[in-house]
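Hi support team,

I submitted a single chain yesterday and got back a structure, but I'm not sure I'm reading the token output correctly. Could someone confirm the output below corresponds to the sequence I sent? I've pasted both exactly as they appear in my results page.

Thanks,
R.
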Amino acid sequence: MNEIRPAAKVGNMGKAQTKEIEFWTKEEYLKFSEAIIDKPLSFYAFEILYWCGIRLGELLALTPADFDFEKGVVTINESYQ
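Hi R., thanks for writing in. Yes, this is the structure output for that exact sequence:
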């Protein structure tokens, strides 16, 4: 008896191949940051993203209370999904 399997019609879930993630080298980032230094909001956003290694959603969720300038600490406790 030939069994009908719905999953066989649509294929497997997920990706068959994973996408390679590329990272900037320090030199590449420094070259990029020089190009945006005249745009303070963008410059500081990318500085935090690059040097702290946080995700975009974590950056967007930051508030002034998350920064302790005396201790030099940024607290990441939320993320926009």
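A quick pointer for reading it: Residues 23-81 form one domain. Let us know if anything else looks off.

Best,
Support desk
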